[in-house]
User: What shape does this take?
Amino acid sequence: MTTKKTLILALTLLTAGALATSCSNEDNISDGPQQQPANGTITLTATLAPKGEAKADSGGQTRSVDESGATTWVSGEKVAVYYQKTDDTYATATATVGTPNADGSAPITASLSDAKGGTAKFVYPATLSDGAGGIDASILGGQDGTIAGISADFDAATGEGTITVGSSEASVSGTVTMTNQVLIGKFTPMYGGAAIDGITSLVISDGTNMYAVAPSSGTSFGTTGIYVAMLPVSGKKVSIWAYTASTTYIFKKSVTLEAGKLYRNLAIPCYPETVSLSSVTTTSGGVTDVSGTPTLRLQDGQLVTGSLVRNGDTDTDHRVKVTIADGATVTLSGATIDGKAESDDAWAGITCEGDATILLTGANTVTNFDSWYPAIFVPEGKTLTIGGSGTLTASNTRYIDGNVYTGSGAAIGGGYNMACGNIAITGGTVTANGGNGCAAIGGGYGASCGSITISGAASVTAKASNSGAGIGGGNGTSCGNISISGDCTVTATGGNNGAGIGSGRKATCGNISISGDCTVTATGGNNGAGIGTGHYATCGSISITGGTVTAQGSGSAAGIGCGMGGSNSNKSVCGAITIEGSGDFNIVTAIRGQGALRPIGHSTDSNRNTCGTITFGYNTVYTAGDDLYSYSTDGGGLNFEETETDLGGGENYTGNTWKLWR
Assistant: This one.
């Protein structure tokens, strides 16, 4: 939602499909018993069943309602009649409601031209007819917010009856029951526990239909509620924008609202669409007290701008915890959150309360408030998705006497002994700098992490500190599967003893897959693989089926596969490694560390590491359990080349680097 004008103009572009009662061709109306056709114009008479009784908020038909919920026919109202003609085409006539009967029913009359007997469709009010027996939902777009306006123009209902044609007149036997097709809601936008005054317009969208409501007289609505007729929604997210002269308020939530009901008490808790962090203090800018902590809770649809910077322990005005509500999507637009972690504030720069989506525009920066916490925290069992077109720099830091050091949390993910959930990056440019013992993106120190997915056109640079993977697990942690796909660009550097992509020191991670047309550069920290395990660590299978991949091991670690292992329980263990030439496969380059045996697979002797079966194309290079010196160098349909790479210490010989390409 950018501006009110844009939304209202958009109404002319949005249309909804006709309701189930509509039809678009003659197959949708079935002929009744064949009647003698009437050539020329005849008069149709029919009786509409009573509209219904006044009902409570939870139910009841609502045609021609008043404030009490009464539903009565009014003499002079118009009803469209869609009927079949003698030439088997269809036409629409307008019927007029007569004086209602004592039982609430009402007669209607209409002039039909060349009518043929059979099923007819009735649409009320006639102005909402789509010309084919259904409702033209696009006409619901412009309303004035009053019950009288809805009663006269928007309280849509449809029905069917069988026309019997005589020589000079036509009739419908019995009564025609009109079924309401819309609901009516009395919306009261609220903020801070009070009704918002001065609303100049209200816009509601259910993702398919949009309704714009503006007062027919005066410049704004009062605080007593705004009536809106709309099509029913079931479990769909409804977005509401309430505009005042100075502020746009929004509300987004999945709701169920049923046709034929009058909802009199829809108090809508709204919030400003734009949040300026520059105006946020412990007592202003939308901050509330949550269990004794000043908290700014970002809500679904909010745009976040400006800077929230805490300038040391003495700055108590900006000691604010920023959270994202469960299920919310927020946009960071040139936003800065800098906690300057000097004291134990016990929270991250941004805390996701549940599943969350962060969209990026402009340049954004987030650091933690507490050195044990990540810059952005993702709770266990939940998923954070980062996308958009802007940039994000997330860093775990610690300030001591004004100097900046690394803390003990991930940049995005978990913290010290603090498990985290799933992380998905689908767009934008993300730079992540992790703290001691933690991944840059993924697990913190000593606690588990969920899956990590990077896809689309995302550009990611991840640099870990001591013992953490660039992307994956921290020290002594477990991490889920890691997937990289699409046309993304990824540069991942492990901290000392951590893999570039995979597990940290004495840690485990799930399967690693790389596909699509991505470009991946992964460098392990000392004794960590470029892609695979850290020092004394374990990972699942590794599959590379696309992209351009460069993996550099360090110390006694392979480029792809095992990091340095130890004896007994300190072995490094890697699952099966598959490099295939399908899809967008371009080239894979693996460079071993100085003390490693192979660029791909084992790092050192079998007493210290174990690797699964290795496959290049259709060729099994190594079978798990075989002599680790029995590697084949057949590319299995892929081009294969051994080259020399200066690893330092005079170790220049063929076999330091393996390249495979299609």
User: Anything to note?
Assistant: The chain is about 0% helix and 40% strand. The two ends are 47 Å apart (CA to CA).
